[in-house]
Design a protein that fits this description.
Elements (H helix, E strand, L loop, with lengths): L2 H28 L7 H37 L4 E10 L6 E11 L4 E10 L2 E10 L4 E6 L9 E8 L5 E8 L1 H6 L15
Antiparallel strand pairs: 1-2, 2-5, 3-4, 3-6, 6-7
Helix pairs in contact: 1-2
Length: 193
């Protein structure tokens, strides 16, 4: 659930609570004046309290679920493919490919990491006991033309709490070439001085 959805639910919940409270104050203050008996008065008071409790419980449940999602996101490794060591065209200075492909972790530690790296119809099965924050696992090293038209990487790992997770990454080199896109290096601000 995104931040805007959560804000919407909280806002609607608070508006409903305020409307129910305003209605209850009105009926409790002016209910006896309109000829309402004690039994009806008590029934109305009970219904208003029940509605208010349901709204508060709903808002609390939504908040609890959001906190759980946030906690799970905080302890999840954030993996990505990172091309490195670029090949340049001597005439234009454009990047025409890369000679190294890494798996980068920008999140918490990933444990018991199994990696299936496939390119040019060949698959390589790799293993790392753990990949820490800002660690890189070199998946491939060679000539850019050896990668073929598509690179697929499947990663199975466990987070800090031992929960098994799986992610898949693809670089569609053929579509990049067809669209005539240029590779660009991604600079790390701590290294750019």
């Amino acid at each position: 659930m995104s931040l805007s959805n959560r804000s919407l639910y909280l806002t609607v919940g608070l508006i409903v609570v305020l409307l129910v409270l305003a209605a209850s104050v009105y009926f409790l203050s002016f209910g006896n004046l309109s000829g309402m008996g004690t039994a009806e008065y008590n029934l109305l008071f009970t219904v208003v309290n029940l509605i208010t409790d349901v709204v508060f419980a709903s808002v609390a449940t939504i908040n609890m679920l959001e906190v759980k999602k946030s906690r799970n996101e905080m302890v999840r490794p954030h993996l990505a493919l990172e091309p490195a060591y670029f090949d340049y065209d001597m005439k234009t200075g454009d990047i025409i490919g890369f000679t190294c492909l890494n798996l980068l972790n920008a999140g918490t530690v990933a444990r018991d990491v199994e990696i299936d790296f496939c390119s040019s119809g060949k698959c390589t099965m790799l293993y790392a006991a753990s990949v820490g924050t800002n660690d890189r696992v070199q998946l491939w090293n060679g000539r850019f033309s050896e990668l073929g038209d598509n690179v697929t990487t499947k990663v199975r790992y466990k987070n800090m709490f031992g929960k098994s997770l799986e992610e898949s990454f693809t670089i569609d080199i053929d579509s990049i070439k067809k669209a005539q896109r240029k590779f660009v290096p991604v600079l790390n601000p701590s290294n750019a001085k």
